[in-house]
What we know:
Elements: H1 2-24, H2 26-33, H3 49-68, E1 76-78, E2 83-85, E3 91-93, H4 100-110, H5 115-126, E4 148-156, H6 158-163, E5 183-190, E6 196-208, E7 215-225, E8 228-231, E9 247-249, H7 255-265, E10 270-272, H8 276-284, E11 290-293, H9 300-312, E12 316-319, H10 320-326, E13 355-358, H11 361-371
Parallel strand pairs: 1-4, 9-10, 9-11
Antiparallel strand pairs: 2-3, 4-5, 5-6, 6-7, 7-8, 11-13, 12-13
Helix pairs in contact: 1-2, 1-3, 1-5, 4-5, 8-9
Amino acid sequence: MADLLKLLLRVSEKAANVARVCRQEAPLFQLLVQEKTGEDKNKKFVQDFKTLADVVIQEVIRNDVGAQFPEMVDFIHGEESNKFENGLGECVTVTVRSTEEETAALLATVLDGDLTAAALLARAIHQDPATINASTDGLTVPLDPSELGIWIDPIDATSQYIEGREEVVEEGRMSPSGLHCALVLIGVYLRVTGEPVMGIINQPFNHRDPASGSWQGKIFWGVSCRDLNVCSVSRPKASPTSQPLSVVLSSSEKQAVKETLASLCGPEKLMYASGAGYKILCVIQGLADAYVLSEGSTFKWDSCAPHALLRALGGGVVDLTKSLESGCEAKAELTYHEPYSEGKGADRWANYGGLVAYGDSSQLSVIIRALKGKL
Ligand code: 2IP
Ligand code: CA
């Protein structure tokens, strides 16, 4: 199944290209940042171009994976629905067609005949990425496509993607917000048990090439199944036990959690960052020991891919509420195959009990003990 990994690396790069093109090409960028309301609103245009960009990315992934692995088609899920309605109530289903021209023609129908924007988008969708900076040579993955499902988040941290602030990010340091928080996430899970077994995190805006000034991405990947644990990131060193833990949170985290963790970690080691995927990536890279979230505000598509990388490194992601109740964190690992029966719509796929992403299980226990009775 190294073929699936290779394909997902390639499609993640195609998706990253689409994300970059939408910011780099003026006609698309205009659409991305404008939000027309009231009199200005063109009723023939889809409600929201940013959602269209997300859907296009998701459909590229679905199309390419479905073409090579037809047995997976019904098990490829994403954050967005590909059905669009414009202000006139007309419904269009956005899919990738067999030629660039056909895709452009279909996109033009949801862009109210804007042929330039439709052609630019279609070109990015149909162009094969040049080279991919990720070597999987010699890797054999003991998995069959018929036992797997996929979760896609076309762009995580959409607000950072739209806002587009460029931060100078130093190697080995966390930067709380900016374009680098926007990530393409593709996670693979086992249909029977829901365990995450393969993950690709593509960061489209890692740095600018000093010569050309164009954005360069970075790909992180991991596989964790049976005895095989491989990750493109090497295992971060756990902080010495004498050192306080470092934890990353959402800035909108509850005050009680902020206060409890501030007394556990000390104010210096309590950090804030945007993007659920980016925060887990910080744990993967060892920039934080853990990411704690007390609300059910993330979804299966946010956590599946980075969870697989953390597992490959010996860590994981647990349901916070279940861990606090059961006192046995090992049994509370998030799974990806079953909906939350009490949720409606997208909420059926929420990580409703909150979560803790960790690199080291003894550190996880310290965090759970500290939060007990505090929420
Ligand atoms: C969001 C995004 C947000 C995050 C939220 C995710 O996904 O990652 O940044 O909130 O949980 O669902 P926060 O940054 O406060 O952690 P999307 O951007 O795809 O909607
Ligand atoms: Ca997301």
